[in-house]
Amino acid sequence: MKAVDRRLSTTVLPHFVLSVLKRIQAWLTDRENLLFLAMIVVYLIPLWAFRYFPSQDGPSHLANATIIREYHEPDRTAFRAYYVFNQRFTPNWAGHLVLAGLMSLMSPLVAEKVFLSGYVILLPVAIRYAVLAVRRDSGFLAVLGFPFVYNYPLHMGFYTFSYSLAMFFFVSGYWLKHRERFGLREMVTLAILSILLYLCHIVSAVAAFLELVLMAVWLVLPEFGRRVRQRRLEIANGCRSKSWPRCRSARL
């Protein structure tokens, strides 16, 4: 690998490309990362080993994506006669737009597999990201999330809701990772992640915001308790040098 690094350093590759390649090389040398990558590959096999993915509402998502993609075509007057194009900024838009874009490049069945592959990859990655945000040496716990990848909502065909599960962990993990130094850049990034989560599903968005509020309160409570104890100690020390009637009103 050192010889490869020397050859790369003598080429015209930009510095950031070399930096990315070195990071990938370092990442792949970790056995924990290799196991995580192998698990993702294993979980992708069921998607591509069969022609159809068994789901209840999956075909309706493909039909909606087809209508969106062909809505304004001249020979699709029936679409415009029976459907009204929703131009509001509402949840569930993300999945339909992505599927419509993929179907412009490939067949509907392949587009569905690519779309679901993104979910199978993103959910474990998001869980691992959130776990590492809590503690840097606990990434191995992310493998416990793999049994929940092929869950009930996914087989029901709730594709955008399934994606919202991944976005939920990305939003939570990002806040946990940057909670102690939350500047303008972090606020903008969290806002973008929150919008993406909202476009996936409103239930997951509300759950994420409630979780952030509860975590913020949980993290503030110890500091609040410490200040209360410090205040009580200051009052007690002050009362030792005064007569009881004068400091009685100051006791908590």
Structure write-up:
Helices cover 72% and strands 0% of the residues. It is an all-alpha fold and 252 residues long. It folds into two domains: 1-43, no CATH class; 50-209, no CATH class. The chain has helices at 2-9, 15-28, 31-49, 58-70, 77-82, 93-103, 108-134, 152-155, 159-178, 184-200, 202-240, 244-247. It is globular, with a radius of gyration of 26 Å. Helix 4 (58-70) crosses helix 6 and helix 10 (184-200) packs across helix 11. The protein is built from twelve helices and no strands.
Sheet having the most strands: none
Give the CA-CA distance, first to last residue. 67 Å
Per DSSP E runs of 2 or more residues, the count of β-strands stands at 0
Counting structural domains, the number is 2
Number of helices: 12
Helical content (DSSP H or I, runs of 4+): over 70%
Mean pLDDT: 83
Are there runs of 5+ residues with pLDDT below 50, and where? none
| Rough outline | globular
- Beta-strand residue percentage: under 5%
Order of helices and strands: HHHHHHHHHHHH
Radius of gyration: 26 Å
The assigned structural class equals: mainly alpha
